[in-house]
Amino acid sequence: MVGGAGPVPGHRPPPPPGRPVPGRRPAPEPLRHLPDPPQVPPEPPATASPQQIMLPSRRVLAARMLRAAWLPALILLILWYLLLTCYVMGTSPTFWTLGLLSILFEPGYFAMLARAVGFSPSTLGLAYLLLPVLGTLVSLALLPVSVHRVATMDPRAHLTEEDFQRCLARRAAAPLMIPPLAAIVLVTVLALTPLSPHWQSLSAGVLAALSAGLLWCLLAWLAMRGRLSATQLLEVPSPAAQLGIWDRSTRTVPAAERAQRLAVLVTQDRRHLPPVPARLEPGPAELLVHAARSLRWIAGAALYWVAPVALPLSWIIFTVQDLVVVIHRLTSTQTFTVARAEQPWQVFAFGVPLLLVLVGLVALTPHLAMLLAAGTRDAVTDERTYPTWEERAARNPWEVRVVNLTGVLVSLQALLITAVYTVLLLAAGAMSTVGWVWAAVDVLLLVPLLGLGASWAMRRRLRDVLYGPAGRYVRRRTPFLLVAPEGGIAPLRHVAPAGPARHASHADPYRAADAEAISQGILPDFGAAADEESPREDPHRIPDTETGLHRHDPPR
């Protein structure tokens, strides 16, 4: 039809503006200005009933840890042998390498080689025979500390079962790494004093040995965490296995019971972002607490983002520097004597204070990023904590802005410190070829990785910086309150069970009837209202009806 004036048969005209479309859910209203989440009352371990204890006693936990400790003991023994080798080679890696090659043709060179670097053959053999074994025994002597750290854990204080099991493995393995790290710190400090018999200074060989030693410690730490897991110590399935069992076993289970089972594995984080304005204006003491938390999580991220790259590169660079110095000495003097690639004193005199300045700046960076992101607060459509970063980023531009600014600012700060360090070394005449290599490595690799690690840390831990641990505001619906009691389970026989109902008004962010909706991605509104100025009966009230929940559904 020409002109298009008549209606098209079978076509329904669109509804007038402002009228809801039949069969279509209305667009969600912005869910902002949530109240500050209330803290959960603390639960002393003495209030736990026998049904809420994972293991009957710490003796049982210690026995399981001893049975599982054979592989960590083997890892520690290998680690101590590697650390001892790094210490010996640190006197001059190139000299030792060339000397050991010559031993293949003349075995008598070994005694001369050992004496040349300050070792006697008998002392060196005795050290390799005893020191790794003694070091391993000292590490295993700290197993009671691991038992205590694991036994006092509260599974309900962790948002997910996966987070609880990861934390358990870290707590179990950390004490065993104290002796190796203490040995590295001790020999490093002694190298700066006349008391060290072999490491006379922090030369290139010593720095290469320290880099290799720290790298071996990092690898040993990761390996031991895999062995001292909740699967081994508590005999519980891994989170992935539990989720698989849950999927297979709940096909015929009613929705309410299925939701309750899922709530055992994961609960909803009540720490919303952005927080109430008062939390963004901390006093001096609280600001220091925020800075300490920020530094903790960013430093932890650096272990995954920066250390695996920095430590091998450090070993390579300092080993090559030692090689160049030794070869130059051999070709110029025609004598096979120990030559050490000493570092100028300005390298440490300027580097250590600047490193401390960088640490302080990094600790304050997340708070600065929050202040700079204030303009995006009104653009937030949902302050609640969604399980994935993609879901949070689609609804919370403020959080995205803080995360990105933290990474950018940390990178700029590290770049500025690198530039100042380079200028100071140039002004002091201490800038060598190795210094220029390190400047290039910092600018091209380490600085970007540090910024990425800081952003990654804030994606996962920004709520920890502002609020503290999640367990202060919510309790997961796991039936357990404690891993193992100190005096065994007998003294707890007459304690009244705490029960899940004890925390219904404080710990649970949703009732059991709402858990199914949350498992489908629909979160409770935690007491928010469309009109923040309108009076509310209870600022922390959870909607009682499905309509109340769906009113603030996330966009589909």
Automatic annotation (TrEMBL):
Region Disordered, residue ranges: 1-50, 526-556
- Give the residue spans that cross the bilayer: 68-88, 95-114, 126-151, 172-192, 204-224, 302-327, 347-374, 402-430, 436-457
Q: Which UniProt keywords apply?
A: Membrane, Transmembrane, Transmembrane helix
Does the keyword Membrane feature in the UniProt annotation?
Answer: yes
Q: Pro residues: which segments have biased composition?
A: 10-25, 36-47
The annotated regions of Basic and acidic residues compositional bias extend over 26-35, 536-556
Q: What is this protein called?
A: Uncharacterized protein
Q: Which organism is it from?
A: Brachybacterium phenoliresistens
| Organism classification | Bacteria, Bacillati, Actinomycetota, Actinomycetes, Micrococcales
